[in-house]
Design brief:
Layout lengths: L10 E2 L9 H7 L9 H18 L6 E3 L4 H11 L5 E6 L2 H13 L2 E6 L8 H10 L3 E7 L1 E2 L4 E2 L2 H10 L3 E5 L18 E4 L12 E5 L1 H9 L30 H17 L1 H21 L16 E5 L6 H12 L1 E2 L1 E2 L8 E5 L7 H17 L6 H17 L1
Parallel strand pairs: 1-12, 3-4, 3-5, 5-8, 8-9
Antiparallel strand pairs: 2-10, 6-7, 9-10, 11-14, 13-14
Helix pairs in contact: 1-8, 2-8, 3-4, 5-6, 8-9, 9-11, 9-12, 10-11, 11-12
């Protein structure tokens, strides 16, 4: 029996928002304290310390009160000064999108662009920084979700740092699902959120900030102040003896606290391992059915999302509708230039469990078969299970 569009899906295997962990849902149900109650002020400071530990950074992070698009736009407005030359690295829709914000604030915007099924070559970044030593800010999206690819930000970060430029990293859909953090990739602004791999609802931005980034923002006369886009207003808000610029999202902070407890208790390495195993099993099943991944090189495929090329003659919306109606499974579409060309299967937070790769492969294969595309679903499921079994044995 199919489910209608008015009914909730049984499995939300999207690239975000994702299902929230049960612990997070319980956290969201905690009492909403007055933000200046001493109990909340002390609690907020402790959450910030947990976040610093989770980010594995030496510096106190910032929590902005809005989903990560807020922090990305605020980062452009705050870090980029009118005289700056900015290098934007574009390997997908979200990397390209940052250029729209950067262009508003900089003197000149340069870009390195590659096809959206490829990744940025660090050598090209080194070459352009050498040719243009006036580049002050470099921006890169670590996991460009509409392509399902991972850029080598640690290598890029070392190159940028050696040239003395500032690096802004969009790690919204990668942090918490793989080994990435502000210090490990030399990021001056490291922007992520709890609504992907940490298993929270959307509503907050989590940002690692270096002391040199704070100094640059303070020296930028055009950096927003007394604004929703301001980083500077929140620099010391983590301290219980400092005021908030405006009312924080108390319930979201409660949920974040529960998510951080869960992440740190399970252990980051274990969390990363189950994301990686789930994605590897899913990729194996997709390939065994005779389908193609979107990334040109499987080694660049993300452990937090699998992007699958839609076969010729199959319509994107019809494929996702069939998977939802027949099997209760919700997938994500492409975005921008990848819209209609691929379907995305999320492996983030609660759905980064290997069994969900079996669900995904079965629903994807079954939906394609229902639309008249011939493929071997059983071979896909068998290949998925083989990877899971190998992982369990290891």
């Amino acid at each position: 029996m199919s489910i209608t569009t008015d009914e909730d899906p049984i499995f939300t295997l999207t690239t975000g928002p994702v299902d929230a962990y049960p612990e997070v849902l319980r956290g969201l149900a905690r009492p909403v304290l007055y933000d200046y109650d001493p109990a909340f002020l002390g609690f907020y400071e402790r959450v910030e310390e947990k976040l610093r530990s989770a980010l594995r950074t030496a510096h106190m992070p910032v929590i902005l009160q809005g989903e990560p698009v807020l922090a990305l736009e605020a980062g452009a407005a705050s870090l980029i000064a009118k005289q700056d030359v900015v290098l934007n690295l574009v390997s997908g829709v979200y990397g390209a999108g940052f250029g729209f914000w950067a262009r508003r604030y900089c003197a000149e915007l340069l870009e390195i662009r590659v096809p959206y099924d490829e990744i940025i070559d660090p050598a090209s970044v080194a070459a352009l920084l050498k040719a243009r030593p006036d580049i002050r800010v470099v921006a890169v999206c670590h996991h460009d979700t509409p392509s399902g690819t991972i850029n080598p930000v640690a290598q890029i970060g070392r190159i940028v740092a050696a040239r003395g430029a500032y690096l802004l990293v969009d790690a919204v859909s990668s942090f918490g699902g793989m080994d990435i953090g502000p210090d490990s990739c030399s990021a001056d602004l490291f922007i992520t959120g709890p609504n992907k791999c940490l298993g929270c609802p959307p509503g907050l931005s989590l940002v690692g900030v270096t002391p040199r980034a704070w100094e640059k923002m303070k020296q930028n006369p055009d950096a927003p102040r007394d604004s929703i886009l301001s980083f500077l207003d929140w620099e010391h808000a983590w301290r219980r003896d400092r005021p908030f610029p405006f009312t924080p999202s108390v319930a979201e902070i409660n949920g974040l606290d529960a998510a951080l407890d869960r992440y740190l208790s399970e252990g980051p390495e274990r969390v990363w391992a189950r994301h990686a195993l789930t994605a590897a099993a899913c990729r194996a099943g997709v390939l065994a059915m005779g389908l193609r991944l979107w990334p040109a090189d499987v080694r660049t495929a993300s452990p937090t999302a699998t992007a699958v090329r839609i076969p010729a003659g199959v319509e994107d919306a019809a494929l996702r509708a069939a998977a939802r109606a027949r099997y209760g499974v919700m997938f994500s579409s492409g975005r921008g230039e990848t819209l209609g060309k691929l379907v995305r299967i999320g492996h983030m937070g609660p759905t980064a469990r290997p069994i969900y790769s079996v669900v995904a492969v079965t629903a994807l294969g079954g939906a394609l078969r229902a639309l008249g595309h011939r493929l071997d679903v059983a071979a896909g499921v068998a290949a998925t299970l083989a990877v899971i079994d190998d992982g369990a044995a290891g």
